[in-house]
Every structure is written in structure tokens, then in C-alpha cells.
């Protein structure tokens, strides 16, 4: 019986150990699961912020964006909204005006920075990246003055803000990257990145001084020339789902205002007094000559066409050629969905042709307008006959219509009748800003749900330890059960032996 009590005690101790080892690890694992689940939920609801400044030639515009993670997709980016208004602020003049006074640039930027800080939670400021990308105006000033402004900003902002200021995020970007950022923004707003097999939209953006173009090069295209950029919007460079090959470049001198200068210079050189690209009866002095508007728009088209390309350079064959001289991918842009921005929108919209582009409808309206007498146009403006046009544009409408169409059709080889071109101001209800594309590209590696992977590793480690202890306890329990069973067998056997030896039947005692 004493032996039986010992083994019974061993069994009880085994059960107690089982309770105090397996149960706590099970509870601990459950807590870990709950904690990680909670972390997953928090990461899905996690919101970070990004601040970017578009430092253009006429002013600097600040945008504040919210950044949220999405599983198996790009970061979800939206303009921060406060009291039903986007958090956007602009200051003037342009950054380039500080070329001779770089010491004043921080004072100029401070209102923008304070505006952003007022709309971002204070505990998020140190984790919020600030980008300042300068464009056309800053490209034109001398290199040493440009560098002085950039260095002042890089050093000075770190002293006045808690936002994260990294030197590479304060710089002048070239026109090609401005085009790439616009391409990213357009396709992101349209949701094209969430549908991998759907063709991406190309874009043409004409300003006053230059025109930019960006579009995706098909995988089968063997173009090895310049102006090609491989970009990856995935969270790491090994992610092939969001990798694209983009053709992007800027053509200086092909903006609407620079085009007008070329045209007027051609009139001065030819000493022609007839200005076919102005409405009838519009007389204006160009240089020393007094020009008379004839409103002959077909003649205007011929004259403008002669201004496309550089006559001193060798021409190249279509379709792999832009503006007569520039080698390009042999992509038929007539079959690419193209969005035209800025001057393309303003000019086509002035003639009631904004949106889907119809060449005949557009040009018919232009011809009617240009054939009007200048005095009638002025009176018509007072009667609101041209609701989409500013008064300042009335003089140049004929020329700009000829310029945008000629650059599109002769410069970029888009067919006049069979094309997928459309002019746009807003996409999905919001104005396209290249700043959105820049923010998406430069925050693609942003980490959300910090510590989640580490918690998962700990959970797995704890589970493995729990499983090991459980196995050990089970083995001990089995061993105890075997020993207990053996004890019972031995006890019965000894009892039986005792009865055999010490007990005698009654008949033997006779």
C-alpha cells in the first residue's frame, strides 16, 4: 500500500504540473493571438500623413495627404479634408524670386509649414515627411543661386519644424520626373493600378513655356532610346506587380506662350502685315509692325505647322518620332487613351469642346469664332456668348487653338479622326496634381503597423515552446499511467502468491 501511495502521489503531481504548464501557455498564446489581431486591426486603421510643396514659377502650393495601408495594393492616398475643404495653401511669388536673397526663403515658407502643422496630430509630426520639389522657375536660374536656395531650405526647415526634413526631399526636379509624377497621379485616380491587365492612361500637359508627355511603353516595344524610366510603385524593388517602363520628356519652347512668340517672330521676319491667327479686324503692334487680323484659320494652321520641329536638325520617320526631330518609341498614340491637361483643357473648353475630343467639331467652332469681327467678339463677351473664356484669352484663342491641335497631331502623330484623346480639368471630381503622384512614389516603402511582424514571431516562438512542454507532460502522464498499471499488477501478483503459500485448504488440516 505504501508503494501504491507513492505512485498515486506521483500521478497527482504530474497532473498539477500539467495544469500549471500547459494552461498558462495556452492562455499566453490566446493573449498573443488577441494582441496580434488587435495590431492587425490597428494597422488597417492606421493613418499617416505626408506634406509636399509644388514650388512652381508663380508660387508654392502645399498639399497635406493622408496615407493608409491596403493589403496587396498601393498605399491609399487622399487629400486631407478639414471642415469640408482640402488642406491646401499657396503663397506667392515663386521660389526662384529668392535667387538674390536666399536668406529670406525660410520666412517665405514658414506660413506654409505652420499651416500643415496645424492640421496634423502633434504626435505624428516627427513621423511625417516633408517634400519640397521645385520645377520650371528654379530650373532657369544659375546653378550656384539654385543651390544656395536649396541649401538654405534644407538647413533652415530643420530648425523651425518637427516635421521630418530629409535633404534628398528638398530639391529641383526635372521635367521628365514632373511628367512621371503626373502619369502616376492620373492612373492612380482612375484606379488603373488596381487592375494590372488594363492599359494605363498617357498624358500630355501643355503649359506656357513647355509641353510634357508621358506614357507606358508596352513590354513588346524594343525601344532603347532616351527618356525612358523604369519605376516601381511596390513597397520594395522586388515587387514586380507595380513595375512600369515609362517614356517621359519635356519639350521646352512648345508651350502655348512660347509658341505664340515663335509665330510673332515669324511674322516679323517675313514682314507680313496679315495676321491669320487673330480674329478679323484685330489690329496689334508686334515689334515695329502693325499687324491686321484676318481670321483665316486654315492659313493659320499652315503657318503654325511650319513652326514645329527644328529645321537645323535631321528629321526622323514616323511613328517613332516626335516634333519631326526627336526619336521616340514606335507607339501609335492614336490607340492610347491620352489625357490632355492645362492648355489643352482651357483652349478646347473655350470652344465648347472640353472632354472627349472631336477634331471636326472643335475646328468648326474655331473657324466660326476667328471669322467674327473683333468688335463683335468684344460685344459678345459682354453678352456672355463665351462663358468658358476669360477676356484676356479672346485675342489669342485662334492662335492657341491652332497651336494645341498642331502639336497634338503633327508633333505627337495623333490621328485627327481616330483617336482616344480627351482634354480634362478634373478626374473623378478632383484636379490632377503631380504632387499626388510624387507622394505615392516617395512613400511607397512606408511601414504601417509597426512591430506586427515581431509580435507574430514571438507568438510562433511561444506556441512552439507550449507544444514542447505539452508533449513532455503527456509523456510523463503516459509513463505515470504505465507505472501505476504496473504497480497494480505487481500488487495483485504478490497478494496471490501470499495466499498460495500461507493459506491452506481445510482438508489438509485433517
TrEMBL record:
Classification via InterPro entries: GDA1_CD39_NTPase (IPR000407)
Pfam families: GDA1_CD39 (PF01150)
Molecular-function GO terms, alphabetical: ATP binding; GDP phosphatase activity; ribonucleoside triphosphate phosphatase activity; UDP phosphatase activity
GO biological process: CTP metabolic process; UDP catabolic process
Keywords: ATP-binding, Hydrolase, Membrane, Nucleotide-binding, Transmembrane, Transmembrane helix
Keyword Membrane attributed: yes
Active site, UniProt feature: 178
Residues noted as binding ATP in the record, renumbered to the chain: 208-212
Gene Ontology CC, one term: membrane
Membrane-spanning residues: 7-27, 468-487
PROSITE patterns tied to this protein: GDA1_CD39_NTPASE
Similarity comment: family membership: Belongs to the GDA1/CD39 NTPase family.
Protein name: Nucleoside-diphosphatase mig-23
Organism: Caenorhabditis tropicalis
